[in-house]
Amino acid sequence: MTGVSTRAPSARLNQLPSSTLITGISELWTSDGPPLRDAALVIDGDTFAWVGPADKAPDADARVDVEGRAVLPGWVDSHTHLVFDGDRSAEFEARMAGQRYAAGGITVTTDATRAASDDRLAALLRQRVREARAGGTTCLETKTGYGLTVDEEARAARIAAAEVDEVSFLGAHVVPRGADPDEYVALVTGDMLAAVRDYVRWIDVFCEEGAFDVEQSRRVLDAGRRAGLGLRIHGNQLGYSGGVALAVELGAASVDHVNFLSHDDVEALAGSDTVATILPACDLSTRMPFAPARRLLDAGATIAIASNCNPGTSFTSSMNFCVGTAVLQQHLTLDEAIRAGTAGGAKALRRSDVGRIAPGLRADLHVLDAPAAIHLAYRPGMPLTHQVWRAGRREI
Ligand SMILES: [Zn+2]
To answer: Residue 37 Cα, ligand 1 centroid: separation in angstroms?
Structure first.
């Protein structure tokens, strides 16, 4: 068990009463360079105040000894779809028995989500956020996209905005059954966008065969930009969709999935500010080829790792699992994988306050129940999250 001792705050006049010194850190992964050994850090209020070697640590009001465990920034999961109701385990089972995945299965979720009450949807979302938090995720993006009507998309955006750090509008997730694609794009870029605008920071589009083509995706993103939203794309998951080229051309913050990349796609990403977000659990759950993360890194692109937690193709929010899989299956070094799940996710969300451990940043911490972070890949599937701190408060 972790020892916690509290002293009287009057000993030092220049000290705020809310500081905590964390000691006993075997490896401190700041996401800036190699890990520090035998490290300590001080949290003051909701931010980090000091980071360095244990023998130089300043005093603080309270002290927490993590007893030789590895400490990372909290995971930044920059891609999830958590506002939904309904069960798709049978569809998954059928796919595991050989049926091929194609865009469109989400209508099962759309029907169930529309039928759920506000209270039920909010409770389901809170439960999923708690699950993510229990796995070390401290900054979370989620999307609309299971409503697909003006009122339902606005409802999902409103419910999401109350529970997570970042919300994306994904009205352009799939063309609803029976709708004309161009008429639906006009609805997404018109009344639907206006209805969600106050609840979201991002606009996203599923640029893929069977969903929205490049020109339809461009219309969606242009409208979002005019409304003041940042841009993200689901692209190149099922084929060479053109999503990557569009993301780079429009200066999107991130293009996500990126399984099928041409040489030009890789070069374009490497020469841009657009983050390539890989979704290892989704690749595994759909038995698709893993995104070529090694090629992207070797070319100089910035990558993020996210869970894509959703009921159809990746029903896990375990970033421990995603990061371990990126090491085991996609040949990332541990340092590259940790950075992609923390600072990479922060860059994909254009946030400078999370994803690293440094003075002044939000005090989001993940203490592993292991002496070294390589246990994320060395012990796949094991319960490795020991403590989670978010904005200076211990939550797990
Ligand atoms: Zn997604």
So the answer is: 37
